[in-house]
Write the structure tokens for this entry.
Amino acid sequence: MKGKVFLVGAGPGDVGLLTLKGKEVLEHAEVVVYDSLVGEGIFQFVPQEAEFIDVGKRAGNHKMAQNEINQLLLEKALGGKYVVRLKGGDPFMFGRGGEELELLAANNVPFEVVPGVTSPLAVPAYSGIPATHRDFSSSVHIFTGHRKRGEALQFDFEAMVRIGGTLVFLMGVSSLAEICRGLLAAGMEPQMPAAILQQGTCAAQKKLISSLADMEKEAQRQGVQTPAILVVGEVCALGNQFAWYEQLPLFGRKILVTRPRERSKMLADRLRSLGAEVLEVPAIRTERIAENCRLWQELENLFAYQYLVFTSPAGVKTFFEELRGRGKDIRSLGMAQIAAIGMGTAKEVEALGLRCAWMPEIYDGQHLGILLGEICKAGDKILIPRAAQGSRQLIQEIEKRVSVEITDLPIYHTVYEEFPEVGDIRGQLERAEIHMAVFTSASTVRGFAKAAAGMDLGQVQAVCIGAQTEAAAKKMGMKTVTAKAATIDSLIEACMAAATDIL
């Protein structure tokens, strides 16, 4: 049985520029064949069990020849796989997508093309440069500056000068001198504005605006590197006036979010809206304890408890899934009052149509224990369904204050995750390309440290949600900034504070 190949444009780097259809296709991928210029955040949409094949190309460094890539796609599809060929930008914009489809078409392999946001339009836009503007340019022309080794550029520079408009050269850094000199020799005004845009739409985005005559010298002085595009035209003069991305408060910061995958979206989206490039790299995941006879017994005895205490959203989710799985509903809770460790856990409770009666002002186990110790009466029964590795501090604080019967009930395990095989997270940390890591629990710190085993964590800037998380990060040798309150808003404020010390 034949599979199918999807040629998907990943956009220029910012994960928010991936199309909805591109995301939908990635979510069903069995094999992903990807290029170097694909934004790292996009891989979060791919199932973890998928096969990842890096065929990335950089100038002078091809991991796999084009004919080998074509054959690979054919072989995987003939093996019945759902294959995604993931390419930076748009697959038909100098992406050799047409070449890859020829072999598939010749062998009657079904395929689809998912266009992507293309870099010659998006990268200038992120740099405040409109491709067209009624007062300056009514056309845009896109060229590739790439050439075979040892060959000269095959450009008609005189035609470029005559046609006017905005000229965009992809992969033009290595040919920058020839392009600038060719345009000048063909009669273009030496003072024509030009811009080199490096790693556009990402945290490492850089912009150099100069006159065409000075561009070669300025690019050398500032050490421009690939990937970058060259834009030539009057519209480049608007780049500083219209700069918007660079004005966002977290622009230039790459932030690693370590929350479990199912809980990272809100935080990641908020950080991206402030200009950060965000990598969602879960440090932990939760696994329900299978065949949990103790839990099943307690579900039959819930009427006996005066308090039901949750210490995490995962605990709420797991507990009520088990309750429903045993054929019961919220009526089984009887008169038990519900307490939650913090706002995130309380929201998970309230989403079920239940009311959270108690929550400490400081969202941690110590203060939840203090609160319960003050409100409980002697002889009350308390059920705490939580992680098997739960801290004893919660129970100790209760028992200091009142004589109660506590059932500490493990219902899930916390499992530490490894770094993903794509994205070179370890290498980016070692090269200080990731500016901060955000931790929402001590367990995410421990999971991160385990994945980073053998690394010096002394240069990691940890942004922590609370005192216990901060203590865990400091124990690992990290630099820390801690949120004033255990909320997403306060955590983002801490990221903003950390950002002022980074660049």
